[in-house]
Amino acid sequence: MLVARRAGPVYARTVPLADVNSAYTDLVETVFSSTIAAKAWLATGAVVLAIAQVLTASRMWGRLRRVVPLRFETAKRVHRWSGRVAVLLTLPVFFHCVTILGFRTPDLRVTVHAIAGSFVYGVLAAKLLVIRRKSRNFPPWTLPILGGSLAAVLATLWLTSALWYFTNVRFGF
Amino acid sequence: MRRLRAPVALLVVVTLATFGLAKWHPFSPSAPAATSPAGSGDPTRGARVFASTCAGCHGADAQGKVGPALRGSGLTAEEVAAVVASGRGVMPAGLVSGQQAADVAAYVATLSQ
Predict the structure, then answer these.
(1) Which of B18, B32, B94 lies nearest to residue A121, judging by beta carbons?
(2) How much is the pLDDT for A57?
(3) Which of A26, A52, A68, A126 is most exposed by smallest CB count within 10 Å?
(4) Which residue in A has a C-alpha nearest to residue B51's C-alpha?
């Protein structure tokens, strides 16, 4: 990174950094038919877990007791682990979208996807900060707003990528 | 509202950092080192790559679907390799890379004549 910054963007774009794309593609294609298919399925996993996040968070806030018949402690544990796994699933997607494909705006779908994708880790970081610093007495609506925003951003990302892939390209691995 | 300053600042910083990284996209396959010479491709292997990666948009027989028809398009292997490396329209860059890109370019070139 330091070398790239000193030598300028041309160096960064011509030396082995570019081979990262080939290595990533080879790795992903040991399981999936293409990088896009891999991202579609990983994003789907993350969205399913995000739904679990919303349901367990609702239970923790005293809502949806009939829909989510879990004890508070169980809901809390499921919420934490589903969140951790969801974040892990998004990392390969983030890596490919951000460092290989980049910010592109060829049409409305991709533009919405690129903008929403820029926000996802920002909202996540803010949410984690609020959770870690409970002693700061943030307004009580802060956490539900951030959690809801994160779920909405993830849903937007899935609708503008994985759903498009499954309905317009192919439904398969 | 002062209490919200830290989370809002963190949200903005991380979002801008993500945006900046996406604008830079350091591992983009547009770098020359990422592409094999288009002429070195094997059309037989390229047919398999096409079926798994490209046929979803361009159609199994390359007659076009969501993506444009490639059969009879007149594209050369070099032109196909350039589009695969850099992307075009809604087609992302680097769907395949390296030897696979060269192979699929050679295959599409055989269809496009």
Answers:
(1) B18
(2) 93
(3) A26
(4) A33
